[in-house]
Each structure stands twice: as structure tokens, then as C-alpha cells.
Design a protein that fits this description.
The protein is an alpha/beta fold and 289 residues long. The chain has two domains: 8-105 and 252-284, Leucine Dehydrogenase, chain A, domain 1 (Rossmann fold); 108-247, NAD(P)-binding Rossmann-like Domain (Rossmann fold, 3-Layer(aba) Sandwich), CATH 3.40.50. It has helices at 22-32, 49-58, 83-88, 107-117, 134-143, 157-171, 182-189, 234-241, 249-265, 271-284, and strands at residues 8-14, 37-43, 63-66, 80-81, 93-97, 100-104, 126-130, 149-154, 174-179, 194-197, 222-225, 245-247. The strands form two sheets. Strands 2-1-3-5-6-4 form a six-stranded mixed sheet, sandwiched between helices. Strand 11, helix 8 (234-241) and strand 12 form a beta-alpha-beta unit. Helix 4 (107-117) packs across helix 5 (134-143). The chain is globular and about 60 Å long. The structure holds 2'-monophosphoadenosine-5'-diphosphate.
Length: 289
């Protein structure tokens, strides 16, 4: 699609953004659906955030993705933030709805969709979430609407406790937040159905690290990792080796992007095309499938 006077613009803003996979993923999707839209990346520093949002408004951008370090700070410049994003305390997607900027968080929805698309149903399940950072929080707030029970373990215990308290208040479900220790992990793993690593442990170059010893993994588990470099982390390799079902961080990345795409275009995202574009870009960076 050649750009024209009617081309709609979407962009990612953050610092840094030059390594983002979102431009290739969304541009491939726009092309596939023959939409007259384009996706670009802008480095925006903390001091420039307010100006960047007001520029996006004036220039009539269709949508934005927001990444580090602006996911929280951006909320005060929007006209509205949906309730889950408010609870998470982070916006990663903005829709320009005829001049009104509305903030969403698609990370958690993307993670849950990645599970479901891999035939993993959350209903009635116990989810053990490792990590209570930005990604952990987003997954927890979405998962709490769908699973039976959530346990959050985090190296810094206060963050896990605070998250569990907020989840308990909002959803009235069985939730627990504790510090990460090998004893607690062993104990909680016994009746866990879905295990999600939402920490950065296992990310390149620390590719041999995993928070979960292999002897705690079972064939009836579903294991998802948010890390996508490498595509198969130590945790996922170990889980696969014992016959567990695994979902890679790339799936979560694709589906969070797909949800943003659908918010902006109101059309089903072409998942296969987005995945292929992201995989090709990762390959260029030396992350092999
Ligand atoms: P993100 O937005 O990707 O979640 P983040 O908010 O910095 O990033 O959170 C990173 C998560 O990984 C946190 O849960 C962090 O634990 P702390 O809250 O204790 O910092 C977790 N994490 C990072 N390195 C870790 C390690 N070596 N061991 C255990 N947890 C780790």
C-alpha cells in the first residue's frame, strides 16, 4: 500500500524503541489486510512525553503503543483509561477515538489469548505466576478474571503481597502473594495447572537460568514464558522435556500486538502474518526458531 493523503498513522513511543518488533509486525498486518495505514517508531524521552501525546492528538494518529518508561506516566495525558489498565497501572495501547484518547493494556489479554489459542483453558485452573513486575501485574489482572486461583511469587515479596491484595479486592478470588523461595515454589507447584514465568530470568545472555528446577515440572502442566529471546527458554526446554505443554513469549508478544491491532482497526488481526514478520525480524537479530 502506497501512502496517500488518507494514510492513517500508528506509532510506538518509548525510550529505547529502535529494537521493537511492533513496526514490522503491524506493517505486515496492514499490508495483508490492504489497510491504508502505517506504523512507525519514535524515541520519546520522559521530558518529551506530554508534547508527544499532544502532537499525536493534533496530527490525528489512529493509535499508539506505549513502552518503557512511559506506560504509567502516559495515563495523565489521556481522556480515559479503561478500568483494567488503571488497576494494572500501565497503558500500552492508545486508541484515538474521534479525538478522544483512550488507554488500554493488551499485555494480559494477549497472554491469556496466547494460552487459549494453544488450547489451554483457564477455567477452574490454578495459575502460578512468577514475577510481580509490569508484565506480571498485567497477566495477573487478566488471569484473575478467568482462572480459579492465582498464586504470585516474587523475589521482592512486598510486590507479590500488594498485587495479591489488589487482586483479592477486585475479583474476590483465591489469591496469594508470597516471596519466591524454593520451599514455597515446591509446595505451590504440586497442584498448579498453569505456570507462567513473568520475570526476565532466562533472557539472553543468561540462557541457562530458570527459576523452576526440572524435577518440579510435570507432563500435565502448561508452561508459558514471557521471555522470547531465546524463543525456547531453559524453562520451556525443561517443560517440553517432561512432556508439558509450552507457550513461548513470542506468542504473548504476537497476541498483545493482535489485540492492539484489533482496537485500532476493528478487524481480526492476521496472526500468521504478524508472527512470520516478528520471527523474521528476530532471526535478523540472531534469535533463531
Ligand atoms: P517487566 O515490565 O518486564 O515485568 P519489571 O517490572 O522490571 O519488568 O519486572 C521484572 C520482574 O522480574 C520482577 O518480578 C523482578 O523481581 P523483583 O520485583 O524482585 O525485582 C523479576 N526478576 C528480575 N530478575 C530476577 C531474578 N534474577 N530472580 C528473580 N526474579 C527476578
Amino acid at each position: 500500500m502506497k501512502s496517500s493523503g488518507k494514510t492513517r498513522v500508528c506509532a510506538i513511543i518509548g525510550d529505547p524503541v529502535e529494537h521493537s518488533l511492533s513496526p514490522v509486525m503491524h506493517n505486515a498486518a496492514f499490508k495483508e489486510l490492504k489497510l491504508n495505514m502505517i506504523y512507525v517508531a519514535f524515541t520519546v524521552t520522559r521530558n518529551e512525553l506530554k508534547g508527544a501525546i499532544s502532537s499525536a492528538r493534533i496530527l490525528g494518529f489512529q493509535g499508539l503503543n506505549v513502552t518503557m518508561p512511559h506506560k504509567n506516566a502516559v495515563m495523565k495525558y489521556l481522556d480515559e483509561t479503561v478500568s483494567t489498565a488503571k488497576s494494572i497501572g500501565a497503558v500500552n495501547t492508545i486508541l484515538n477515538n474521534e479525538g478522544r484518547l483512550v488507554g488500554y493494556n493488551t499485555d494480559g489479554i494477549g497472554a491469556m489469548r496466547a494460552l487459549k489459542e494453544n488450547s489451554i483453558s483457564p477455567e477452574g485452573k490454578k495459575l502460578l505466576l512468577l514475577g510481580a513486575g509490569g508484565a506480571g501485574k498485567a497477566i495477573a489482572f487478566q488471569a484473575a478474571q478467568e482462572v480459579e486461583e492465582i498464586v504470585v511469587l516474587n523475589r521482592t515479596s512486598e510486590k507479590a503481597e500488594r498485587l495479591a491484595e489488589a487482586l483479592g479486592k477486585k475479583f474476590g478470588k483465591k489469591v496469594k502473594g508470597e516471596s519466591f523461595s524454593s520451599e514455597i515454589l515446591k509446595d505451590e507447584m504440586r497442584d498448579t495447572n498453569i505456570l507462567v514465568n513473568a520475570t526476565s530470568v532466562g533472557m539472553h545472555p543468561d540462557v541457562n537460568r530458570s527459576l523452576v528446577p526440572r524435577n518440579l515440572l510435570r507432563s500435565d502442566l502448561c508452561v508459558m514464558d514471557i521471555v522470547y529471546s531465546p524463543l525456547k527458554t531453559r524453562l520451556l526446554l525443561d517443560a517440553e522435556a517432561v512432556g508439558a505443554k509450552v507457550v513461548s513469549g513470542l506468542e504473548m508478544l504476537i497476541y498483545q500486538g493482535a489485540v492492539s491491532f484489533e482496537i485500532w482497526t476493528k478487524q481480526p488481526a492476521p496472526i500468521k502474518v504478524m508472527k512470520e514478520a516478528a520471527l523474521n525480524k528476530l532471526e535478523e537479530k540472531g534469535v533463531h526458531r
